[in-house]
Amino acid sequence: MEAIGLTEFGGPDVLRVVRMPTPEPGEGEVRIRVYMVAVNPTDATFRAGGRAAQLADRTPPYVPGMDAAGVVDKVGPGTSGRLSAGARVIALVIPMGPHGGTYAEQIVAGEASVVRAPKGATDAEAATLLLNAVAARLALDALGLSAGQAVAVTGAAGAVGGYAIQLAKARGLTVVADASPGGEDAVGVLGADHVVARGAGFAGQVRALVPGGVPGLVDGANLDAAALRAIADGGAIASLKGWSGPAERGITVRPISAFGSVTDTALLEELRDLAEDGTLSLHVAEIMPARLAPEAHRRLAAGGIRGRIVLDFETPLTSPAG
Q1: CATH of domain 134-259
Q2: Cis, peptide link before residue 61, omega less than 30° from 0
Q3: Rounded distance between C-alpha atoms, residue 167 and residue 173, angstroms
Q4: In the chain, where does the domain assigned CATH 3.40.50.720 lie?
Q5: 148: helix, coil or strand?
Q6: How does pLDDT run across 75-106, given as a tens digit for each residue?
């Protein structure tokens, strides 16, 4: 089979088409014929060497990717029967694991990390759900806010930020979200109660709306310490990039990682159901041929993308003679 992988860490151009053995599912695993893969910031971190230490005992090529949508084409021994060949599915995997990531025509994943795709969604839309929705859900859980309280969301137009707004509204929270010029309407459509300008004046604008500051903040824009002034004394900030402080005024910093939830089937199914019932909306910024993964990473780095770029693995990466 073919995949998009890398033999050395670096910029987007290290990504290239590689040939690899077709994987076989082992005990408790399924194999998926991948159709669509979402391009996430975690993929860029992986490509640049941010996980190199965890790959030190592995032989390249290394394959990035955490999200995938496709069809089960083989079921390994010892599975529960919940999934069968031909089922449309989505998967959330850790690319440092034994089978690598999702940038491949076929992947093997533990059954627990694979759930039925949301009804009514295209494969491209379905591929954008799990990683970002899990991160948003974990962030809100970490803040521990109650209905009627206020939460601020930075990077609100991004995939995690958008899901954080929608999940927060489902919990009865009041949402203050940021937006770049021209993006106010898009953030408002997601359900934000108040939209403030992104940038240096963010914290002051939040305090103008919520005197004393919000009790919790989901930091999708990685403002880190610059976001603290928006938070009330004794409040909390959910950091999506691993920032751990220091904070001030009794504010708690809660770093968020989706890695520990890839086998939480109940959570993955719950988020799938929320996509099916319209609580979570699925946004595809662009579908690109998988062979253009380097360009997809460059566009991701440039910013300003609403939704997710999706790589198409249904179309062969190279010609039969290639």
Answers
A1: 3.40.50.720
A2: yes
A3: 9
A4: 134-259
A5: coil
A6: 999 999 999 999 999 999 999 999 999 999 99
Tell me the C-alpha distance between 280 and 157, whole Å. Answer: 14
Q: Which residues lie below 8 Å from residue 131, measured CB to CB, with a gap of 6+?
A: 38, 40, 42, 66, 67, 92, 258
Query: DSSP of 10-34, one letter per residue?
Result: -SGGG-EEEE-PPP---TTEEEEEE
- pLDDT for res 242: 87
Q: How far apart, in whole angstroms, are the C-alpha atoms of residue 196 and residue 251?
A: 22
**Structure confidence by residue, pLDDT tens digits, 179-196:** 888 888 888 999 999 999
Residues β-bridged to residue 30: 75, 109
pLDDT digits (tens, 9 = 90+) for 289-314: 999 999 999 999 998 888 899 999 99
2-129+282-312 CATH choice from 3.30.1360.120, 3.30.200.20, 3.90.180.10, 3.30.70.1400: 3.90.180.10
pLDDT tens digit sequence for 154-166: 999 888 999 999 9
